[in-house]
Design a protein that fits this description.
Elements lengths: L7 H20 L16 H19 L1 H4 L6 E3 L4 E3 L4 H25 L13 H23 L4 H16 L1
Antiparallel strand pairs: 1-2
Helix pairs in contact: 1-4, 1-5, 1-6, 2-4, 2-5
């Protein structure tokens, strides 16, 4: 994407991604955060915490001032960490703050010109695209864990009904 390209579609996709994340979080209860994979991997909550922390961590690297207001919901390293958020509502707040900060950082960079130094060098909106793709990857893992833990097909269909139409508008 060239610097003079219209970023409207990327912002629209990012906003739709926010809607999909919100729909998934709305379908969960606090107990779902503890659903394990049964093989030593991340729990549902850790996947979601990782997504929220992704915004905080990357903004801390590319636009530190924008990372300051995002609540941290994990402690530890990038792959070996614990979820510190106790509720879905805490995670939702971190997602909301992170998404607002991500958009603000990209808009600021678009207004001043240039890219994020040493990262996302093609265009500032590449950060938003990276976030959307990363979120989709982990949402799939979350749904697979919940399916394996016994969520009903009706529940899974309800989540699909709340999320897929967002992309088809």
């Amino acid at each position: 994407m060239t610097q003079d390209a219209d970023p409207t579609l990327v912002f629209d996709a990012f906003d739709r991604n926010t809607e999909v994340n919100t729909a998934l979080l709305d379908a969960l209860d606090d107990g779902d955060l503890h659903v394990p994979d049964g093989r030593g991997g991340w729990t549902v909550g850790q996947h979601l915490g990782h997504l929220a922390e992704f915004r905080h961590g990357w903004l801390g690297h590319i636009a530190p001032a924008h990372a300051e207001g995002i609540p941290s919901v994990v402690e530890g390293g990038e792959t070996d960490f614990v979820l510190t958020a106790a509720t879905v509502a805490e995670l939702a707040a971190a997602f909301q703050a992170g998404d607002a900060a991500a958009k603000a950082a990209v808009r600021e960079r678009l207004a001043t010109g240039g890219s994020f130094e040493h990262v996302y060098t093609s265009h500032p909106t590449a950060f938003l695209v990276h976030t959307v793709v990363h979120d989709a990857h982990h949402r799939g893992q979350v749904l697979a864990l919940l399916r394996a833990a016994g969520r009903s097909q009706a529940w899974l269909d309800a989540v699909d009904d709340a999320t897929w139409p967002v992309w088809k508008r």
